[in-house]
Design a protein that fits this description.
The complex is a heterodimer of chains A (147) and B (149). Chain A has three helices and four strands; from the N terminus they run ααββαββ. By secondary structure, chain A is of the alpha+beta class. In chain A, β1 (62-66) and β2 form a beta hairpin. In chain A, α1 crosses α2. The longest helix of chain A is centred in the first third of the chain and has 33 residues, at 26-58. Chain A is flat, with a radius of gyration of 25 Å. The longest helix of chain B is centred in the last third of the chain and has 24 residues, at 117-140. In chain B, α3 packs across α4 (117-140). By secondary structure, chain B is α+β, with helices and mostly antiparallel strands. Chain B starts with a helix and ends in a 9-residue tail after the last helix. Classes of the chains: A alpha+beta (147), B alpha+beta (149). At the A-B interface, β1 of A face α2 and β5 of B. β1 (62-66) of chain A pairs parallel with β5 (106-114) of chain B.
Chain lengths: 147, 149
């Protein structure tokens, strides 16, 4: 696989893609950018697999290698253990911790705000800046690639 | 610390016998290896700093250090040891850390660092800065005879 990136072309695609609000033709530029993103992400995925294979073949205890600009790490992510719900009732309490989480009931808060003009005590407004997302719709109508 | 020394002796003995890394660290065949005391190198830096270092294993282009204890290899790779040792052997291209946790009785990592002009420069800066601080302390506390001229 060969990936060639013409940075001037990318810049031009960006400028053209930004005009999608006014021009249907701008869609083609966005498609090209998304396809390029897909190719690069796939290439990085392939590079990771190649590194893992080569590193573990060299030394099965491999955990990291670093150069001047890049550090490659190899570790697990996420929780180390889970809870088996089927037998949870037999689990002694020292092996788990209980977490309680609360979230706002949006419809009720909206109703209160309309009626009283302010938020109920204990509720805060979270600032959520809007973001642009771009999705590539494939031939089957599913979202194949998004950014 | 005593347990650490014992582990190092064991690994050195295995390396000398097999000319390979200890089996627990992967058992890679070593190239023209030298071990511990025979790797001792002394260099004078700036005319007044005597830097002395020893490698657990020294090959023509790879320096290796074995670590026992709870800290994994990757943590050492983020430190300064390899940069300082590179001053003594600037021809090295790679430095490997192998860590073994004797409490959990398992290997906790193999971390490799590429040695470059940048890491060498950082090593020299580290040594000179720390040596200057040490020298200043010794002079202020009359623990050294000749001041820096």
């Amino acid at each position: 696989m060969q990936i060639t990136v013409d940075t001037d072309k990318v810049k031009s695609l960006v400028e053209d893609g930004g005009k999608i609000l006014m021009s249907q033709e701008a869609e083609a530029s966005l498609v090209q950018l998304l396809e390029l993103q897909k190719s690069v992400e796939a290439a990085i995925g392939d590079a990771k697999k190649a590194i893992e294979e080569a590193a573990l073949a060299y030394n099965p205890n491999f955990t990291s290698v670093q150069g001047e600009k890049v550090k490659v790490g190899y570790r697990s992510f996420g929780s180390k253990y889970g809870i088996d719900q089927a037998t949870f009732d037999k689990l002694p309490p020292q092996f788990y911790k209980k977490k309680v989480s609360y979230s706002a009931e949006t419809k009720e808060v909206d109703k209160y705000l309309v009626e009283f003009g302010s938020l109920p005590l204990g509720i805060t407004k979270i600032e959520r800046p809007k973001q642009i997302s771009i999705k590539l719709i494939d031939d089957w109508g599913d979202d194949a690639t998004s950014s | 610390m005593i347990a650490g020394r014992e582990w190092h002796k064991k690994w050195e003995a295995e390396g000398r016998e097999t000319h390979c890394l200890p089996e627990v660290f992967g058992g890679r065949a070593l190239i023209e290896p030298k071990f511990e005391k025979e790797t001792k190198t002394v260099k004078v830096i700036g005319g007044w700093i005597q830097l002395v270092g020893v490698f657990d294993v020294l090959e023509p282009t790879i320096g290796t250090d074995f670590k026992s204890g709870v800290m994994p290899a990757t943590a050492y790779a983020n430190g300064y040891q390899h940069k300082v040792l590179q001053i003594l052997k600037p021809e090295l291209k790679l430095f490997d850390y192998h860590s073994y946790d004797q409490y959990l009785k398992k290997v906790t990592g193999f971390a490799r660092v590429h040695l470059t002009d940048k890491t060498l420069k950082e090593g020299i800066e580290f040594v000179v800065t720390n040596a200057s601080d040490m020298r200043a302390y010794l002079e202020e506390n009359n623990l050294i005879r000749e001041p820096i001229s």
